[in-house]
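pasting for the record
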Amino acid sequence: MLVRHRIDDELLREMAGRLSAEDAAEMAIPSYLHKNPLLRSMAWWRVDVLAKRLDRAARAVGRNELTIVDYGCGSGVLFGDALRFARDLVGVDLVLDAAKLLVERRAYRGVRLLTPDEAETQIEPGSVDIILAGEVLEHIEPLGPILQRFRSWLRDDRSRLLVTLPTENQLYQLGRKIAGFSGHYHHATAATITPEIQQVGFTLTRRETIPLPGPLSIYWCMDFAK
């Protein structure tokens, strides 16, 4: 299943023009637009997989008009897919310029955009059905407080936390080098973050890897129950 509402290249370029180079890179915009088709496909692949997992989780929750939090929403690349199920979609990010532009251009309704500090006070405990955390937890330190907050936000045992994390292995580092990205800005990796998620009480229900298992895995894609 492909993302049904991919952001077109022209809009992605306009977003990048409104952001610093660092913020655009954090949102993977250069990867979505990369001249190398293999790297471009890999960038969209992880989004496609998260969209598929969102679809599966939303159907498993079994309620209509869900509340979904996209934590670290970036450009809002999954907003269109989330709005298929969400009555209330909350996009959370430190930098909201790109997401605001998308919501405006697509005339999306039912979307709230909040900073992390605003989310902490405005999202009620027990009010959320699904939390998306695609490639964001590796940037947060300390991680424990936000994981505990996630658990408090989720409604019940049918609710889900959907996480995508980089492995930071040699293949991942090679991909970053080929793509032209430098530096090491992740506080942790998939292997070190997963036990932290479980330690606060989440139960791992499913794990997939991109593109292949073992040393060929660049990303771990994991679904957790409250």
